[in-house]
Amino acid sequence: MAYYWFKAFHLIGIVVWFAGLFYLVRLFVYHAEASQQPEPAQTILKTQYEIMEKRLYNIITTPGMAVTVVMAIGLISTEPEILKSGWLHIKLAFVVLLLAYHFYCGRIMRQLAKGECQWTGQQFRALNEAPTVLLVVIVLLAVFKGSLPLDLTTWLIVALVISMAASIQLYAKKRRLDQEKLSSSQG
Ligand code: HEM
């Protein structure tokens, strides 16, 4: 029974963690784009985004990560045999990348607060695709385990995910260009 409790809260932790990661980098987009605003709007917006980012990271995202990891340790301690599975080793390699991404976002947050981050909104939009890729790969490994099929259906799903990510990027680019055109015609 303990195993199911650990698994349930492992999944709840993942949902919270990813909600935090996705929203955090969206806030970075707005934070970076606030530089285009005139004063005093720029300072007001940046101060507000800084507070929102800090709260989101410390109260939602990091606790979500901690719950995921602690519950995973609980899962493994109740079923230590699972440690011998090859799929888990591959999954853990991707989880390490996800943890690196999490702490890297924390670093960006501190740089933005100090005004030392040179990233553009467009670059942050692209960065926000990284956790999507990790989420898909890790969930596929966790669900299919050693029997992850590499047939046509899997590749079609991969193509669908990539094209969705590309469409989001293209839509954001179109909106930016439209906005630039509008402001140059007004100016
Ligand atoms: C500290 C890192 C992690 C470890 C050690 C770990 C370990 C585990 C273990 C042992 C299970 C139970 C597998 C089973 O019952 O067959 C599991 C389930 C699961 N994990 Fe993780 N996990 C980690 C992080 C993650 C992350 C970051 C995600 C998602 C992005 C994830 C997604 C899942 C899913 C979806 C399941 C349910 C699979 C199923 O019941 O078929 N895990 N994890």
TrEMBL record:
Enzyme class: oxidoreductase
Superkingdom assignment: Bacteria
List of residues binding heme: H10, K91
Record has Ion transport as a keyword: no
Transmembrane segments: 6-29, 56-76, 88-105, 126-146, 152-172
Keyword Nucleotide-binding among UniProt keywords: no
EC numbers on record: 1.3.99.-
Predominant localisation class: membrane
Membrane topology field: Multi-pass membrane protein
Subcellular location: Cell membrane
Reaction equation(s) it catalyzes: protoporphyrinogen IX + 3 A = protoporphyrin IX + 3 AH2
Any single biological process term in GO: protoporphyrinogen IX biosynthetic process
Keywords from the named record: Cell membrane, Heme, Iron, Membrane, Metal-binding, Oxidoreductase, Transmembrane, Transmembrane helix
Listed cofactors: heme b
Pfam families with a match to the protein in the record: UPF0093 (PF03653)
Protein family: Belongs to the HemJ family.
Protein name, as recorded: Protoporphyrinogen IX oxidase
Source species taxonomy: Bacteria, Bacillati, Cyanobacteriota, Cyanophyceae, Oscillatoriophycideae
